[in-house]
Amino acid sequence: MNTYQNPVQRGFFPDPSVIRVNDDYYMVNSSFQYFPAIPISHSKDMVHWEIIGHAITDTSYLDLRDIKNSHGIWAPDISYSNGRFIIMATLRLNGDGTRGKNVLRRQLVVSSDKPEGPYTKPAWLEVDSIDPSHFTDDDGKHYMVISPGINLVPLSDDCTKVIGEKINVWQGTGEGCTEGPHIFRRGKYYYAVVAEGGTGYGHGINVARSESLFGPYEPSPYNPVMRQFDENALIQRTGHGKLVQTQNGDWWVYYLCGRRNEGNYTTVGRETAMDPVTWLSDDWFVINDRKGPSLINTAPDLPQVCPPATGDNDKNHHFAFHDDFDKEQLDLQWEFVRNPDWGNCSLTENPGHFRIWATDGCLDEIRAKNTLVRRETELSYIAETKLLFEPQRDGEQAGITCYYSTVTYARCALCYEGGRKIQLVINRNHGEELIAQIDDIREQPVYLKVVVEKLTRTFYYSYDGTDWELVGTLHNCIYLCDEGVPDDRKRHTGTLVGIYANNGGCGSRIAADFDYFDYTTDMKQQ
Asked: What's the angle, vertex CA 105, arms to CA 110 and CA 14, rounded to 5?
């Protein structure tokens, strides 16, 4: 029996939307302030996923430069209609008048004839809400389905224009925070699926149905069809789901979740899980036999399109990542914090290296440029890099970072402060704190490494990549998670790890060359 282990998309992959086109499955997820925006993943077996592109890769299409932490792209949806892939998403703005008017939310839509793209320039649907999805009725009419509850917004045939008033057809069950809406049809019923209870530890999936698209909708007697009731289980925060039918006729649901890290701390961010859907004789459905989210389950039976899953030991994931920066483009697993500044970073200036020119804008500032990160996919891992950098002015720094936001991060950097030093600095939402410092660093390349063991993060440096010296250890890093800083309102992304360079405000422009970046996990420790 082939099995899989949840989550199937591990790390910062929240708010999943999945479709099947023939024998292929495609997923999109929220990307918030990170760029390129809206990762698109592909799978043949529904379990093993690979990023194949992004919905928005042109910086002129989406300006995230002033977007606050955990704002930006929320809850995308992918659909397929008339030979084109259509992706909708919310752009959550700051709502502070910085863009000329006090708008909180806009909806964007892009399309392509290829799942990986390129996608069209975004068209804007001026509806001030969140979590759009696309539904096409049997008569060919297109609707944007949007919260709160289930609202239908009539769209043009190409889905780029609103052509009618918003119609509320179901308000939800009354649990509150009714979001992530989807509608699909099976048999004589339209099924309305929503997330309720908030995106924290009371999150769940509720459903209703109607024989008419416009209602009235009857709530399911089996609600919530998904919720985690075991507060000690590894997988929590389960909701925001979308159903998909396999080519064999079976039904599954993909939904967001979060793994507990030594307490209710979601360090790696909200992830994507999946579980089987069972249709009952009364035409209602239940998820995973109403047992809540599974940790290990039987994999979908799709032998005709792919080899069987290799079992739960691989945890469905490519848990080794190595980038020598010797390609013409960055690996698709990389993300920039906000829009990149291509005038101050390069893969070709020093071939085989990723160069970042250290300029103004520190990690605790939104205006920081070219912080390059990838998702933490496990609770324990090792990441390292080799750095060629010759700082000469106070403030110049480059190194490795475990990054959550401008107010919560850890960084281990080669810097200049009256001489070459290595510093370990943290920010716990109260400004930067120097934790450890190594003086008199030689004028030669240095290697930097972080070893993460759940809530403990230990940083090292080396001159040869073999003999490592301790910089410092951070214990109980609950500030690098969604829940650990209660006075920071929006925290939706989890922690990412990567590289950065800036000048600490000294006004210089100096090159930092990163020779490689390596990420490995010890699956036995997860």
From this structure: 65
Residue 475, C-beta contacts closer than 8 angstroms, at least 6 positions apart: 455, 456
One-letter amino acid for residue 336 of the chain: F
| CATH, range 320-525 | 2.60.120.200
Residue 150 confidence class, pLDDT cut points 50, 70, 90:
very high
Structure tokens at 331: 């690996």
- Residue 343 makes CB contacts below 8 A (sequence gap 6+) with none
Task: Residue 377: name the closest of 474, 211, 194, 520 by CA.
Answer: 520
Question: Which pair of tokens denotes residue 143?
Answer: 């609707």
Note the pLDDT tens digit of each residue in 272-307: 999 999 999 999 999 999 999 999 999 999 865 544
HEC string for 153-193:
EEECCCCCCECCCCEEEECCCCCCCCEEEEEEEECCEEEEE
What is the DSSP track for 440-484?
---SS-EEEEEEEETTEEEEEEESSSSSEEEEEEE---TTSSSSS
- Reported in sequence order, the residue ranges of 341-455 that DSSP labels E, i.e. its strands, are 345-346, 354-358, 372-375, 380-389, 397-405, 408-416, 420-428, 432-438, 446-453
CA proximity to 245, closest of 277, 280, 287, 205: 277
Terminal C-alpha separation, the chain: 23
Distance CA 352, CA 17 (A): 36
Stated length of the chain: 526
Q: How far apart are CA 437 and CA 468, in angstroms?
A: 15
Rounded CA separation 203/130 (Å): 17
Residue-wise pLDDT for 162-208, tens only, equals: 999 999 999 999 999 999 999 999 999 999 999 999 988 999 999 99
pLDDT at 311: 42
The overall average pLDDT reported for the chain is 94
pLDDT of 103 reads: 83
Q: Label residue 525 by pLDDT band (50, 70, 90).
A: very low
CA 232 to chain centre: 24
* DSSP bridge partners of 236: 258
SS3 content of the chain, % helix, strand, coil (to 5): 5, 45, 50
What's the rounded Cα separation, in Å, for the pair 281 and 264?
Answer: 38
Beta-carbon contacts of 322 under 8 Å, excluding residues fewer than 6 positions away, are: 516, 517, 518, 519
Structure-block tokens of residue 182? 């989807």
Instruction: Write down the architecture of domain 3-314 according to CATH.
Output: 5 Propeller (2.115)
pLDDT of residue 310 exceeding 70, the answer is no
CA atoms within 13 A on the CB side of 235: 26
Domain ranges of the chain: 3-314, 320-525
